[in-house]
Amino acid sequence: VERGVMVTEDEINCCVGLGANPDRDGFVTLDACIMDHQFNCGSVAFLERIKHPVSVARRVMEKTPHVMLVGEGAQQFAVAEGFKLEPQELSPDAKKAYEKWLQNSKYEPQINRENVENKGHGPFAPSQIDGEWNHDTIGMVAIDSHGQLGGSCTTSGMGFKMRGRLGDSPIIGAGLYVDGEVGACTATGQGEDVIRVAGSHSVVEMMRQGYGPELACRKIIERIVKIKGDDVKKIQVAFLAINKNGVVGAYAIHKGFSYALKTNTTEKLIAAKSWFS
Ligand code: GLY
Predict the structure, then answer these.
(1) Catalytic status, residue 8
(2) Of the residues 44, 135, 140, 158, which should be mutated to test ligand 1's pocket, given the most ligand atoms within 8 Å of the CB?
(3) Arithmetic mean of pLDDT over the chain
């Protein structure tokens, strides 16, 4: 799960990792976490100039007595662990998007964009979009040949967010949760609304009660829909879950969230069901 999300962290001009859109002060800040089947977990947040936050999160898990390091301390730890400090510069796409945003400097952070299929016609106004419509958080849940579960989650967070803002992705229980005896879940979308319902942990608890992964995800999406009222039209949240038998499921608020499934015999992109069709 570490190597899996590193692929996306590596991409330039992507919505995850150092190529992503900055905060409203022009800095890219990254959040990531990782968890195994035995409740071992590590997390970094508000991390700058480090290419692979998920790997730093893994080091936090393996090498410190803590679960979470943030900001300058997280960066200091990363450098001490041998991670390279990258130049403080925006990718070409992010620079363009930031310059455009600066023309108004209106504090209206862009919500996460999960709509791949529905380009230009989804719940999100095309004017909010610069570049590709794509995930801006990558979460991965997996099961190995011994039936052991694991998960990871990494993001640059919401584009043009307030400096210091954290979403759900680095928070164990919100952006990611793994219980080796039950299942694992990761979240993507508007972090504030995932945190409010302890999203990934709540999905795992639904699976503990006997719901299959898709229905468990749906139950927590329904909770968010109820809390948000009419505002739900303006946000996207999606959960992706796997249970201890290797059954996978997902559910989103809006259409357009798809996830990649890889098994020994399959490799495919699946469109998740959603509350709004
Ligand atoms: N889900 C990513 C974020 O809200 O930061």
Answers:
(1) no
(2) 158
(3) 89
Q: How far is CA 114 from the centre of its chain?
A: 11
Rounded Cα–Cα distance for residues 45 and 33 (Å):
9
Cβ pair 151, 34 in contact under 8 A: yes
State the catalytic residue, choosing from 137, 154, 155, 186.
137
Instruction: Give the model's pLDDT for residue 118.
Output: 36
Pull the structure tokens for residue 237: 């949240």
Residue 109: per-residue pLDDT: 66
Find all residues with CB under 8 Å of 204, minimum gap 6, and list them: 177, 178, 179, 182, 183, 184, 185, 216, 241
pLDDT computed for residue 113 by the predictor:
53
Residues with CB under 6 A from ligand 1: 112, 137, 155, 157-158, 167-169, 188-191
Residue 147 has pLDDT above 60, yes or no: yes
- Give, for 96, the enclosing helix (H) or strand (E): helix 92-104
- The letter for the amino acid at 154 is T
Q: Give the pLDDT confidence of 71-121 residue by residue, as tens digits.
A: 999 999 999 999 999 999 999 989 998 999 899 887 776 654 544 433 332
Q: How far is 159 from 228, CA to CA, in rounded Å? A: 21
How many other CB atoms are there within 10 angstroms of residue 181's CB atom? Answer: 8
Residue whose token pair is 């080091």: 59
